[in-house]
Amino acid sequence: MAGVEHYRVSMDPSIQKLASMNSNRHKYFRWTSRTARITFAYVVAVPAILAYIGYQTDGKFDIRAKRRGDVIREY
């Protein structure tokens, strides 16, 4: 058992091609309407929705130092 190199495995060509595609993805990226919509959703829409929810519920809940039977709402 000593000296046997178990990490040496014959590599599948499709896995090598996938790894090459993933590491070179930035070279083949193109802005399309689909990628623009997805980027807008993750960069602008999701943070805006989370910020809106955060500002609407700011100060309404005081979770710290609550005991059994206390009301969570403060408004």
Total strands: the figure is 0
Large-scale geometry: elongated
**Rg of Cα set:** 26 Å
Helix content: 40-55%
Q: Please identify the oligomeric state.
A: single chain
Q: How would you sum up this structure, described in words?
A:
With 75 residues, this protein is mostly helical. The protein has helices at residues 13-23, 25-28, 33-56. The chain contains three helices and no strands. The relative contact order is 0.06. The model has no long low-confidence stretch (mean pLDDT 84).
Write the layout of secondary structure elements.
Blueprint: H1 13-23, H2 25-28, H3 33-56
Keywords:
75 residues; 52% helix
Condensed summary:
The chain is mostly helical. The protein is built from three helices and no strands.
